[in-house]
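Today's session is about reading a structure prediction critically. Students often jump straight to the picture, but the first step is always the sequence itself: look for stretches that repeat, for charged clusters, for runs of hydrophobic residues. Only then move on to the predicted structure, which in these notes is written as discrete structure tokens rather than atom positions. Here is the chain we will use throughout the hour.
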Amino acid sequence: VEALDAAGADTVYEFGAGSGALAAQLLGALGGRVKRYAIVDLSGTLRQRQAQRLAAWAGTVQWLDELPDTLLGVVVGNEVLDAMPVQLLHWDGAQWLERGVVAHGDTLAFADRPTALRPPVDGPFVPGTVTEIHPQAEAFIRTLAARLTRGAAFFIDYGFPEAEYYHPQRSAGTLMCHRAHQSDDRPLDDLGRKDITAHVNFTGLALAGQDAGLDVLGYTSQAHFLFNCGLAELLASADLRERAMAQKLVNEHEMGELFKAIAFGRGVALDPLGFSEGDRMHTL
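Below is the predicted structure for this chain, in token form.
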């Protein structure tokens, strides 16, 4: 609501709306303040699920097949940046190699080749280190900057600032696969049947946005973001099940610390409530 008011807008854009659960909660909470809720999602299967879940707001919700030429309003992305492709780099102790995939008959395997690509920090790196760089996610932020005429964008995802992301002790990188509530680090197994993700380098996103003309409005942990936005007050009237679910969102050993929130703005005078305490922009 703060961001919509600051932008003088009534449209929310959500990227990668998944099951539609977040959209339903936002629409229910925002009520008539939102006249248009635009979902950018390329999955036809998910679109059907979203339509069913959001049937009560059929006159407000619309689906877009591509990014609009101009955006005026508020952009929301929950766990969308971690799903964008990354490039894998391997440090063998003497040079950087880019990791790719080769086919031997019906068998796929990783293979490395020398590259001019580098992580955005100088190290030191332990020989054998495998890590990621995020050109596509950063390009997405630059594209968003080019099309956001006035408004704000909020992204929530798991990740670290640059110094933590490329810490020497994180020598195995962050690439992970998820399927049926189980995780592994073997992306070439069961191709097409698992989600492949990597943590977000929030420093890279912040710099990409800033260089493209966006203001970085805030960066903090998910726990701080939710408490700043009034979670404690909501829990006062919550039942036991809701309180247990909330603990997963804010506890440090659950999602409260690993997940972060970052906000960008253009053409708005906005100091978002979600970053009023515990802002960590200085760590980027």
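Discussion point for the tutorial: The longest strand covers residues 148-160.
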